[in-house]
Write a structure and sequence with these properties.
By secondary structure, the chain is an alpha/beta fold. It contains 16 helices and 7 strands. It has a 7-stranded mixed β-sheet with strand order 3-2-1-4-6-5-7, sandwiched between helices. Helix 3 (about 110-120) packs parallel to helix 4 and helix 10 (about 320-345) crosses helix 13 (about 420-445). The protein is elongated and about 95 Å long. The model is unreliable at about 470-475 (pLDDT under 50).
């Protein structure tokens, strides 16, 4: 009886303490809720609605423009002069411009043969083209293999140069800059750039160079990407949806309306004189391609996007590789925006309308607002209104606007419409990572200049490598756990439980599904799911 009494006493003490803590927490919450939480949440809702409207207007504007382009068929050949280059009996091959093909690479053991082979297979007069392999590899085995491959093509009569540096200063920008300093480059008029996993078709130069030859105001011709592994897993299918919108809408609209868009860093041909006039390659951010494009545009140069010309490449097929890529793609533009905003405003060579387009539309809405509003509104603020029912979000802001934006984003990839829900959930999850990277870029914080080359598996080794990678992840569970995603998932799950318990806003279904998505990504499983079609 004495032991039982002690057990009851301990139990009563525990429950009494728990009740006291719960009661104290409830009192504290009640004291700060009305004077602090409610006003802050209302301000947050207002700001998120403003950003949502900004993004909505931007998406609708681009949809209208791309629709008009499709209806009236204003093709590049109609906007710019284009005619095929022809042989000159008197001048011979010297009538053709000299073209440099640059292939920057870093430890690209799986794909170096693909890119070098594709570049050496480009159709162009053999004495008017130079293939330049810029190898920054630190792995001696890979370095040796790349050099041997270059020697093999040289023995076949290809004018190929194998260039190495003593260090990786400036990363890709540094390699491209050093590549242009070689004496043999002085005779070149144009430079085509391909990353190590890109495989241009043999007629790539015949389709792009004539635009630059016949239109001296053009500095860049950008081709579209074609993904060789889009069907590899669910994650690559969702990447395809996002990138298809970028190319088929954003790049096309920018090219048609302002003759400006961000260079994608590969699968493009530059006029070397434009690169020199813009100040050359700079390594001040991790988006050296966008940096050069903005500076060239401020000098008055125009760009052309050719959606009909496609270059095969590989999408990241592991979550780790994709996260590194997205960090660079989100942090870099935000950091460049910080560095170039005043320079754009002070520029006197371009029109006010183009300045507004570059600062507001290109940078602020697409590179900053789009990331922040996705995470803050749909992952933080909207769930928080469940805990604070005094703050309401209008239906047009919570449902209609995001639904329309989502549908407009999905038009680029009709074959994946049945995966739209998965894409929404995945984009919301990745918005946490992108928002963090955006703030790092804006504030120039710790990882602002982090450059990690995106892992590539190659066509031939894709299945084998993916299987090995999956087994490796299974053995090293700790390496793929992402705590921030877990925290967000737990927060959403808690809000969902609260919504069920108190029936406030009835968002519980969305909250539970989104929480589940965060937990899946937190475990690193998203890249292993393969879609049925």
């Amino acid at each position: 009886m004495e032991g039982l009494s002690r057990t009851n006493l301990v139990s009563d003490t525990f429950y009494g303490t728990r009740d006291d803590i719960t009661e104290q927490f409830g009192i504290m919450w009640g004291q700060i809720k009305a004077p602090l939480i409610v006003p802050l949440l209302r301000i947050s809702v207002f700001l998120c609605l403003v950003m949502s409207v900004m993004l909505f207007i931007e998406r609708v504007y681009m949809f209208v423009v791309i629709t008009l382009l499709k209806v009236f068929g204003t093709k590049p050949e109609k906007r710019y002069k284009w005619e095929p280059l022809k042989d000159d009996v008197e001048l011979g091959n010297s009538s053709y411009p000299m073209v440099l093909v640059q292939i920057p690479m870093y430890n690209e053991k799986e794909v170096y043969q693909l890119s070098i082979g594709a570049a050496c297979g480009l159709s162009w007069p053999s004495d008017r083209i130079i293939v330049q392999v810029l190898d920054d590899s630190t792995d001696p085995i890979t370095k040796n293999l790349v050099e041997i491959e270059c020697q093999r093509w040289a023995s076949k009569g290809i004018n190929i140069k194998y260039e190495v540096r003593d260090n990786r200063s400036g990363y890709k920008a540094g390699a491209l800059k050093e590549g242009l300093k070689h004496s043999y480059v002085k005779q070149c008029d144009f430079v085509a750039i391909f990353d190590a996993d890109f495989q241009p078709e043999p007629d790539f130069l015949w389709q792009t160079i004539p635009f630059l030859v016949h239109n001296h105001e053009l500095s860049l011709v950008q081709a579209r990407w074609k993904y060789v592994n889009a069907d590899e897993c669910l994650m690559t299918r969702m990447q395809e949806m996002s990138l298809d919108y970028h190319f088929s809408v954003e790049q096309e609209v920018g090219s048609s309306t302002h003759a400006f868009f961000g260079f994608n860093g590969t699968a493009g041909v530059w006029r070397i004189a434009a690169i020199d006039e813009a100040g050359g390659w700079k390594d001040r951010t991790t988006v050296e391609d966008m940096d050069l494009a903005v500076r060239a545009s401020l000098k008055g140069w125009k760009f052309l996007f050719l959606g009909s010309v496609k270059v095969k490449n590989e999408l990241p097929s592991t979550l780790k590789a994709y996260r590194y890529q997205q960090h660079r793609w989100s942090c870099g533009p935000a950091n460049l925006f910080r560095k170039m905003c005043m320079e754009i405003i002070r520029n006197k060579k371009v029109s006010l309308w183009k300045k507004v387009h570059v600062i507001y539309s290109f940078f602020f809405v697409r590179k900053v607002v789009a990331h922040i509003v996705t995470f803050v509104f749909y992952v933080v603020v909207l769930p928080a209104t469940v805990l604070v029912p005094e703050v309401e979000v209008p239906k047009w802001g919570a449902v209609y606007i995001p639904a329309i934006i989502t549908l407009l984003n999905a038009v680029g990839t009709p074959r994946s419409l049945h995966l739209l829900v998965f894409w929404i959930l995945f984009e919301n999850v990745m918005s946490l990572h992108r928002t963090k990277a955006t703030f790092i870029g804006l504030l120039e914080a710790g990882r602002v200049n982090e450059w990690i080359v995106t892992e590539k598996l190659g066509d031939a080794l894709k299945l084998k490598s993916a299987t090995k990678a999956f087994k490796k992840h299974r053995m090293r569970l700790g390496d793929r756990i992402h705590l921030l995603e877990f925290a967000a998932g737990a927060y959403l799950f808690f809000c969902g439980c609260y919504d069920i318990a108190f029936g406030t806003n009835h968002y519980f279904l969305y909250l539970f599904i989104q929480a589940f998505a965060f937990l899946i990504v937190g475990f690193g499983y998203v890249g292993t799911f393969v879609p049925n079609s």
